[in-house]
Amino acid sequence: MALTEDDVRGIADYARIALEGDELAEMCAYMNDAVEMLEPILAYNLPDVDPTFHPIGGLSNVMRDDAPDAARAFTIDEALGNAASTRGRSFRVPSILGEEE
To answer: GO molecular function terms here (predicted)?
Structure first.
């Protein structure tokens, strides 16, 4: 199935890419070459193979529980010990909005 220049123009419009005369013809040839390289895949008879939508398959959330590690945790005093400026139990940083309290 060869792509026409109208097909490529529609794809380019969808991708918001401006293609002029020679560029459109060149892109049409390039995309047809890419489609042609994929043609051998259609020759495989794989009716019992489910399509893969993710390269890792059925991977689920691998994040660990967000629980503090008491052996590695800093105390408030240790965390604020090297801070240039603090206010109570917090770091004090310059305002990025330009307004002072």
So the answer is: transferase activity
* Alpha carbon distances (Å) from 46 to 30, 40, 41, 55: 28, 13, 10, 18
Do residues 12 and 32 touch, judged by C-beta distance below 8 A? no
pLDDT at 57: 66
Domain boundaries, the chain: 5-43
Share the mean pLDDT of the chain. 87
Question: pTM of the entire structure?
Answer: 0.45
Alpha helices in the chain (DSSP H): 5-14, 21-38, 76-80
Return the axis-axis angle of helices 5-14 and 21-38, rounded to nearest 10°: 100
* Residue 34 CB neighbour total at 10 angstroms: 10
Q: Which residues are CB-contacts of 5 (< 8 A; sequence separation ≥ 6)?
A: 24, 25, 28
